[in-house]
Design a protein that fits this description.
alpha/beta, Rossmann fold, about 425 residues, pyruvate-formate lyase- activating enzyme, 6-stranded antiparallel beta sheet, Pdz3 Domain, single chain
Length: about 425
């Protein structure tokens, strides 16, 4: 195998040795290069022997000394992974992508299940896509942490939930990774009546037997209104969500009685469904699964209020609006009110956007479409010159488009406002409140 060089920095060491775009990188120090993990791992040496193949098929060896890691080689490849993403081979009964209607961006329908993305970007993988060579490479390179979508530790139930005959057998990889000292963050997408209750207790117990499991996040199944022909699932109720929280808290209590640290956490959404207050900041220890919606509200609240308490108020006049989903609305409304008490010339309006596109069971800001945002704000008689939106509503910071391809310019034009994007942490939100006038 080899990977083709797409571009090369003009003054880098490889360029000075005559390497050009179009060449293929075959090996580093005798190790075959197939993708970005090979490239990163084997380039992190002071002395390198790189084997290239030019467009005519001729091989050339280049010797390089460096101390700065692989970035100093100056090589760029056509894709970040240096080959194609690995497609998910499961047919999970709870898959959110299966619940998407037609007509959205093509990329939204791609189901990735790529171990490299787990290491590079924190994506969760089911392990069912791994080959024996993949497992051995992860152990050899000590790729850590691995973020695993476990869902259940019962092999038969996992096969049933994921519709993949390998789903049960692939659980064995967790023990191999743990034996190799590779840290594991586990995710359990819970479906009422299927893998909660006693099945949840079993999964928590089995995962706790693996020494390298760093954290376990339980998140409720996400259901949209587009489920015709799909497996019959029900949403969590106040009672069943409360049961999940109690099971996890009792599990952690037993760990503490054995002088072990807390492992498992319900996502913020479970507390909201159960009509319980979000726990205090201390509940989440070092916030091991913040990106999974575990402790996001507690973290945002504390960071914002800490910044507010440490600041000196001014007399600047601020007129700001912010829009968010149903889930985050109560918290942002409270923080906006606290800010207005301290900065008395400020008026911050918080608008709640209900999800018409996916249905009212979807409450997070990250799944709000541009059309829903515009239509909802028009119905609420929006007339503010500044509109603050969370970055999670958009594809990326570099591509400010909503799920339905609505753009920021569309929002500004239809609402006659100026849009500003904020990151979803308390410090950033506080700073932008202060800066906007």
């Amino acid at each position: 195998m080899s990977v083709k060089i797409y571009d090369i920095e003009k003054k880098c060491k490889c360029a000075k040795k005559g390497i050009k775009p179009g060449y293929e990188l075959v090996s580093i120090n005798g190790n075959e290069i197939n993708d970005v993990l090979d490239y990163r791992f084997y380039s992190d040496e002071e002395k390198l022997v790189l084997n290239f193949r030019n467009e005519k098929g001729r091989y050339r060896k280049v010797k390089i000394k460096h101390n700065d890691g692989c970035d100093s080689l100056g090589l760029s490849f056509e894709t970040y992974l240096m080959d194609k993403h690995k497609h998910c081979k499961n047919a999970c009964i709870f898959c959110f992508i299966d619940q998407l209607p037609k007509g959205l961006r093509e990329s939204l329908y791609f189901k990735d299940d790529d171990s490299r993305l787990s290491f590079l970007f924190g994506n969760y993988i089911t392990l069912t896509n791994l080959t024996e060579a993949d497992v051995e490479r992860i152990i050899k390179m000590h790729i850590s942490p691995i973020n695993a979508s476990v869902h259940t530790m019962d092999p038969e139930l996992r096969v049933k939930m994921m519709k993949n005959p390998n789903a049960g057998k692939s659980l064995q990889y967790l023990k191999r990774f743990s034996d190799a000292g590779i840290s594991i963050n586990a995710q359990l997408v819970l479906c009422p009546g299927i893998n909660d209750g006693d099945a949840l207790k079993y999964s928590l117990t089995e995962l706790s037997k693996l020494p390298s499991v760093n954290s376990i996040a339980a998140v409720p199944v996400g259901l949209t209104k587009y489920r015709d022909g799909l497996y019959p699932l029900t949403a969590f109720t106040e009672k069943t969500a409360s049961d999940v929280i109690d099971i996890i808290d009792n599990f952690n209590l037993k760990l503490s009685e054995s002088n072990r640290e807390k492992l498992a956490y319900p996502s913020d959404e479970f507390f909201q469904i159960a009509n319980r207050s979000i726990p205090d900041y201390e509940y989440y220890c070092d916030f091991p699964q913040l990106d999974n919606g575990v402790g996001l509200y507690a973290s945002l609240k504390k960071e914002f209020l800490d910044a507010l308490n440490d600041c000196e108020a001014d007399a600047e006049i601020r007129d700001i609006s912010i829009a968010t989903g149903v889930a985050a609305f109560p918290l942002l409304k409270m923080l906006a009110d606290e800010f207005s008490v301290r900065f008395q010339n400020s008026r911050i309006s918080v608008f709640c956007i209900e999800n018409e596109f996916f249905g009212d069971t979807v409450t997070v800001a990250g799944l709000i479409t541009g059309k829903d945002l515009i239509n909802s704000l028009k119905k609420q008689n929006f007339a503010c010159k500044n509109l603050l939106l969370p970055s999670v509503m958009f594809k990326s910071r570099n591509e400010l488009i909503f799920l339905d391809d609505t753009t920021v310019s569309d929002v500004e034009e239809q609402l006659n406002t100026r849009v500003t994007i904020t990151d979803c942490d308390g410090g950033s939100l506080f700073d932008i409140f202060c800066e906007m006038k």
